[in-house]
Sequence to fold (436 residues):
Amino acid sequence: MTRPRVATVLSARNWEPTFADLARATSLVRLVARAYEPAELDRRAGELDVIVAGAETAWVTPSAIKSWRSRGLGVLGLHPPNDRPARRLLTIGEADEVLPDTTPPERILHIVRTLRRPVTASVESASMIAVTGGHGAPGISEVALGLAWGLAQRHATLLIDLDRQGPSLSVRLGVTPAPDVAHAADEVMSSGALPPEVRRIGPLSLLSGPPVNHTGPLSSALVNEVVHAAESSFHRIVVDLGVIEPDDPLLYRAGSRILTCEATPKGLVRAAATVEAWAAPLPALVLNRIPPNGHEDAVRAARHWLGLEPEVLVPQLSEVNDAALVAGPPSPQLVRLLRPLHQPKPVDLG
Amino acid sequence: MRHQLAQVLEAEQEAAAITLRRRSTLRDRLLEAEDRDEAIRITCIDGGSRRGNVSAVGVDHVVLENGETEAYVAIVHIVSIEVTTR
Fold:
């Protein structure tokens, strides 16, 4: 029997250091990580067999547990003794084993070694595609919509509007902005699942943007929860991030990233600033609104200023504007042009 | 209310992370590298360096394998560890 690869969720409670010490002392398991933040587990998911998590940690939520299990990881959940809500949280998340955290570490270790990985596990998690761009409305939302619409022809696809500065997809599609991401986050935190009334528009499901009001922007942790929960129900998740900080955690969380750049001098300069500060794996580049007969110049400029080879070239299309004006589905031509992004290729810097 | 609770929980977890860092030793990091099957480069006090995967960690030494050789390095001689691959 090989030694299972285990990660713990770092905790202030006693079970975690005790378990880690015992794991190291006995070498019965390989302790691959003691995770301080969810991104660490996401990054190492492929190197793990079991996650040991305590319900006292804020980001150990039902949707996070479901998401780990959907990736084929076993989950052992621990809760403070007699803490019913914590226990319930682990049960809703369908942790493989739920124990009070006063259980002797030897017993926890034994269970970790014998834990069966979920039978229904799929090795690949749902693929999240993050769409962003530089300042100045380069067409991020339209690209996200066109991409999601195309993906939705073949896969259960959810489009999430996370443009914190100006969520516009519900207006773009002519629907009321409900349920929105903030509502979804509340629902996920209480029940572990997205609200049942997620809006269907054509082949697509939509979560509208968070209301820009006194509550301020949603925290990354809550947004992460919504994405986790969505992964249990959808095969593809396209997230319109709008203009973001280049080190936004969601850029790391995404399976692939798309940078939208308007093919104008101003657009290229703005995108270059974004690329310069970019810290996540490199994005695929969509050059948008290329002027007639300007393809070669635009590609050359993108190579020169951004150091990226464009994956999709979108010319100026009157039908894109027309579709937006009537609040209808995206232009079929745009949807077609964005098809190469359905199966993202790794970006080669050459 | 939820925000306050989240802040308290976050602070507790941060404290746990800091405590972990403060208590950890070079040997702990080598054990972690072994469990993760990481390729590392070790630099020793004499300025020499060795690359390889950690195949074992003893009480006072670490064993590095690089496909050809197996090197035993005294932990007290290590001045730095660099992870070369994940």
Observations:
- The interface with chain A takes residues 6, 9-10, 12-17, 20, 28, 31-32, 34-36 of chain B (CB under 8 Å).
- The radius of gyration of chain B is 17 Å.
